[in-house]
Specification:
CATH architecture of the largest domain in chain A: Orthogonal Bundle
Structural class of chain A: mainly alpha
Largest sheet of chain B: none
Number of strands of chain B: 0
Number of domains of chain B: 2
Shape of chain A: flat
CATH topology of the largest domain in chain A: MetI-like fold
Radius of gyration of chain A: 24 Å
CATH topology of the largest domain in chain B: MetI-like fold
Oligomer: heterodimer
Largest interface: A-B, 98 and 87 residues
Order of helices and strands of chain B: HHHHHHHHHHHHH
Order of helices and strands of chain A: HHHHHHHHHHHHHHH
Number of strands of chain A: 0
Number of domains of chain A: 2
CATH superfamily of the largest domain in chain A: MetI-like
CATH class of the largest domain in chain B: Mainly Alpha
Strand content of chain A: under 5%
CATH superfamily of the largest domain in chain B: MetI-like
Largest sheet of chain A: none
Radius of gyration of chain B: 24 Å
Shape of chain B: globular
Distance between the termini of chain B: 31 Å
Strand content of chain B: under 5%
Structural class of chain B: mainly alpha
Helix content of chain A: over 70%
Chain lengths: 280, 294
């Protein structure tokens, strides 16, 4: 009886602790939501009211209407387009090369692999400037193609996929080849379906990384019409750095799509993180 | 078993490798070489490049700014790494048991990770506001007059660190959680029979057994610490008085605002060398504290 009561108490204590920690972690978001629902004059008022006296959606309306801001629906669509494109290009290119390096035997293979491996040590800061210069020469600055194109090479995704393809059971390949499948058919109908979980994890990771990226679009895009959400937010910050309700409303909108995606695909996000954890 | 025979084999291999090899040449190998060459020139986009030898490197190593940037980064690392390690390990420990609602708590801990650095930094710029920010309001409740944070040259970097640790804790917590789940429960059972306290179990079983993960997290986050950008760009713009200038922020500004491509390239190579050396040192030191249970 006493032991049981102690157990209940311990469980209760555990829930109180973890809930307090969780509250602490999301307090900034609650603060953000609260601010975003205030009228301009109510933002800088003490003592703080967590629930605004008058709930106002003006900040959200302004985001989509003020002409000097990048319109947020535009920026959201841009972010979506860039993230989907980058994810697709990255996965397609990396999985094709991974297939070639896992399932074909050719002389230069190990050298090619080593060259790819070696470039992984060089930080993005080094290639960032020349990449910009190349794309400028190709007249691809201020275009989505220019923004996406460098993701055609991703040594890390390639390695991960190659290791996974090497580990696939041989009989599937033997059966496909006996049936007279072309290499492309093997890639399309044997390899891709079998590495689907790792593709999903990598895809989620790439999508999230692109959606949240700031530095590369900052370098590549200056045309307001083509700005992604992070750029739009950065812009908002430098123009209206003190209009907190506007900034917080923009923040919330920029977060929503990815949070919704996470709630529905928690499994893939988590395996994406554990995959991301291998990246070093 | 390998696929393909005959003449078509080469065509097939080439076709599958083409996008990656093109990308490798265009966006990795050639840029690395080009950046290296650029770092020995005075190119500023307007005037043609002129070979200046080691001038850029000499100038940057001799500048007060570079050493300030290094000091700032050092301060960031010294504050950020312990804060992040402790908080992510604590979050992982909380999640490392079966209880109703574990997924809900995971989502809550993970929200900052999903947020972009830009959005997270904007929230913290507001939270750290001197007068109306949440942090100082809460500190006020317990009778502490909070500093001006991002407007104060001594408190700006700690402010950036707070935001960064908050944003990263959930990510590393998931990685630690994987390690904690991998520990063989028999160790704890044996320790309980010997009457070990919770702290002793943590200190002598948990910590050594997760040390490979701790090592990984430490190496990764030190490398990342040298590449901090968005937090600083959004929260402080490198200020006040250069107190939060960091190396990536400098590279960005030199290259894309002052167009000093040569100097910025030299900076990026210095960054590369620093990251390389630190990784090697950490690799050497791991023998002393990382425990591999084979």
């Amino acid at each position: 009886m006493i032991a049981k009561r102690a157990g209940v108490l311990r469980t209760a204590l555990f829930y109180v602790t973890i809930s307090l920690v969780a509250l602490f972690m999301i307090l900034p978001f609650l603060w953000m939501i609260s601010t975003s629902l205030k009228e301009s004059e109510a933002v800088m008022v003490l003592p703080v009211r967590w629930i605004p006296e008058k709930i106002s959606l003006k900040a959200y309306r302004d985001l989509f209407t003020i002409s000097t801001v990048v319109p947020f629906h535009r920026a959201t669509l841009n972010s979506l387009a860039v993230s989907v494109l980058t994810t697709f290009v990255n996965l397609a290119s990396a999985s094709m090369a991974a297939f070639a390096l896992a399932k074909f035997d050719f002389k230069a293979r190990d050298k090619v692999l080593f060259a790819f491996l070696a470039t992984m040590m060089v930080p993005g800061a080094v290639t960032m400037i020349p990449n910009y210069l190349v794309l400028r020469t190709l007249r691809l600055t201020n275009t989505f193609i220019g923004l996406v194109l460098p993701s055609i090479y991703n040594a890390w995704a390639l390695f991960l996929l190659r290791q996974n393809i090497m580990a696939l059971p041989e009989p599937y390949f033997e059966a496909a080849i006996i049936d007279g499948a072309t290499p492309f058919a093997v890639y399309r109908h044997v390899v891709l379906p079998m590495v689907k979980p790792i593709l999903a994890s990598l895809g989620v990771l790439t999508f999230m990384g692109t959606w949240n990226d700031y530095l590369w679009p900052l370098i590549m895009i200056s045309d307001p019409e083509k700005m992604t959400l992070t750029l739009a937010l950065g812009n908002l910050n430098s123009r209206w750095g003190q209009k907190w309700e506007l900034l917080m409303a923009g923040n919330l909108i920029s977060m929503l799509p990815i949070v919704i995606a996470y709630v529905f695909a928690q499994k893939y996000f988590e395996s994406g993180i554990s995959v991301g954890g291998l990246k070093s | 078993m390998y696929i393909g025979k005959g003449r078509k084999r080469k065509v097939t291999i080439t076709a599958f490798l083409a996008p990656t090899v093109a990308g490798f040449l265009l966006f990795s190998l050639i840029p690395i070489a080009r950046s290296f060459c650029l770092s020995f020139t005075s190119w500023d986009i307007l005037q043609p490049a002129e070979w200046v030898g080691l001038e850029n490197y000499k100038a940057l190593l001799g500048s007060e700014e570079f050493w300030r940037v290094m000091k700032n980064t050092g301060e960031y690392i010294v504050l950020y790494i312990p804060l992040m390690l402790i908080s992510s390990l604590a979050l992982a420990a909380l999640l490392n048991r079966k209880f109703a609602g574990v997924d809900v708590y995971k989502v809550l801990f993970f929200l900052p990770v999903l947020t972009s650095w830009v959005a997270g930094s904007l929230i913290w710029r507001w939270i750290l506001n001197h007068k109306y920010g949440l942090v100082n309001i809460l500190l006020g409740h317990i009778g502490i007059a909070g500093p001006a944070w991002l407007d104060d040259k001594y408190w700006a970097m700690p402010g950036v660190v707070l935001a960064s640790a908050w944003k990263d804790a959930g990510f590393f917590a998931l990685i630690f959680l994987g390690a904690l789940k991998g520990i063989n429960q028999e160790y704890y059972e044996a320790a309980e029979i010997d009457g070990a306290s919770a702290w002793r179990k943590f200190r002598h079983i948990t910590l050594p057994l997760i040390s490979p993960t701790t090592f990984f997290v430490a190496v990764t986050s030190v490398i990342n610490s040298f590449q901090v950008f968005a937090q600083v760009q959004i929260m402080t713009y490198g200020g006040p008085a250069g107190a939060t200038q960091v190396i990536m922020e400098r590279i960005y500004k030199y290259a894309f605002q002052f167009f000093k491509m040569g100097y910025a390239s030299a900076l990026s190579w210095v960054l590369f060398v620093i990251v390389l050396v630190i990784t090697l040192i950490q690799w050497r030191l791991q023998k002393r504290w990382v425990f591999y249970d084979s």
